[in-house]
Amino acid sequence: MTKASLLALTALSLAAPALANTPPPRPTLEQAADNAGSYDPHAWDFVEGITTEVGQRQAGTEAEVRGRAWAAAWLKAKGFQNIAIEPYMMPTWVPGEPGKAEIVSPFPQSLAVAPLGDTASTGPEGITAEVVMFKSVAELQAAPEGSLKGKIAFVSNAMTRTQDGSQYGFAGPTRWVASGIAASKGAVATVIKSVGTDLHRNPHTGGTDFPEGVKPTPAGALSNPDAANLERMFARAGGRPITMKLVLTPRFLGETESGNVVGEIVGRNPALPPVLLACHLDSWWLGTGAIDDGAGCAIIAAAAKWVSISGQPLRTIRVLFAGAEETGLFGSAAYSKAHINEPIAVGLESDFGADRIWRFDSNFRETNPVLHKKIAAAVARFGVSAGTDPATGGADLNIVRDQKGALVDLQQDGTRYFDLHHTPDDTLDKIDPVQLRQNVAVWTQVVGILANEETAILTGGPVPSAPPVMNGK
To answer: Can you give the pTM of this predicted structure?
Structure first.
């Protein structure tokens, strides 16, 4: 070895420790988003953990309490700051024992049924009555007053698959209002065809409502195959009455405590209005709340984490894991009431499962076209197109709507979502890890752009120097 080579090796060995202690360069936002799409560990860690260690998280119950504690601990372990659980009181309904339905005559057999939220109990002895079928809510509405006295109303209204979930608006009233209409016409109970697109023998639960002055009655959802079977019974009965025994035993527990979980990636300028990322932490009792909405909380938290990996953002990123969404948006309303005078720069929510994002919408396409186009161009590489519909925001973004603020919708593929929605099939194995990572990648890219935007996001103009006065306060 020559003297020159020896000197070179000595210099290299002396430099090695210094090089080893040099932190790797931070990825750019684009690199962070691409990395999230390739190997994100955070979202899966969240949704796998909460569904395994907590499971179903019915609003207002001890299970939801454990869910909040678990989520707060997870945020702390991931380096979020200003973590808090913000409690509020809410009226609490629980489902009771598994529901039972059976046709007594003329074709005796059992049917799969689940109670609908906020409905009454039949008592353990159940109700036995004649069933009257209606093909739609409109047909039920047209029934004469008092014509259902002492009877069970059955509303059958099929839902079909769509990518954007728009059929939910068509079929949803079967669950949302049918039981209240039937009760107002004298029905002692209501059963509906599940608002869902699967052909499994799984009832789809969900909340229903009763008009003011109408006392809640027992109401349940039949699985789609069982509802179709009941339709065939009516076709074959030849005018003979069809009698059903229905046993549903839900209970109202009165006021119990629920709560929201919040955490932040603190920005370089905390005085600027933050970017709010929302999901809901509660779930119905039938499944483990994997797609509705454990995946949504996983996606938003993972995206906030990835943005921080690319560098401290200009604006604070706040995550809101809302409570009690399923039973009445109590968490969303409580958060808005508590924080209405704290301006939000822009709100985004993930609450439509875990399948790929295919479209981006905002409510500032006209008022801030530069930013809208910037985001649209940035997400195109993930297969996301730019939509023209104004974003309306998710259910837990009441505060942004109340403030008339900026909203972004990252539309997920809902083709199979209503196969799983509010059923026992809402479990971890239904989540596609590749599509979950695509969600995190798109969210990382979009949130990173928004969190580093210097001007007012809704208008593109200067950021107000003082909080605006809202709701007359």
So the answer is: 0.92
Pair (243, 353) in one structural domain: no
Q: Give the full edge-to-edge strand order of the sheet including 127-134.
A: 109-111, 100-105, 242-247, 127-134, 152-155, 189-193, 219-222, 113-115
Same domain, 216 and 242: yes
The tens digit of pLDDT for each residue in 289-326 reads 999 999 999 999 999 999 999 999 999 999 999 999 99
**Assigned domain for 119 exists:** yes
Query: Structurally, how many domains does the chain consist of?
Result: 2
Residue 1 or residue 222, greater confidence: 222
Percent of the chain scoring above 70 in pLDDT: 93
Tokens of 202: 């799984």
Whether residue 4 is contained in a domain is answered as no
Of the pLDDT bands very low, low, confident and very high (cuts 50, 70, 90), residue 9 is very low
Chain segment 209-222, per-residue pLDDT in tens:
999 999 999 999 99
208 and 75 in a common domain: no
Here the CATH number for the domain that contains residue 264 is: 3.40.630.10
pLDDT tens per residue across span 126-142:
999 999 999 999 999 99
Same domain for 335 and 400: yes
Q: What residues contact residue 130 under an 8 Å CB cut-off, 6+ apart?
A: 150, 151, 152, 241, 242, 243, 244
211 and 297 within one domain: no
Same domain, 267 and 416: yes
DSSP β-ladder status, 242-247 and 219-222: unpaired
- Residue-range definition of the domain harbouring residue 438: 29-93+254-451
Position 439 scores a pLDDT of 98
DSSP 187-235: -SEEEEE-SSS--SS-----B----TTPPP--EEEE-HHHHHHHHHHHH
Distance CA 44, CA 354 (A): 11
Q: CA-CA distance, 261 to 267, in Å (whole number)?
A: 19
Using an 8 Å Cβ cutoff, are 163 and 414 in contact?
yes
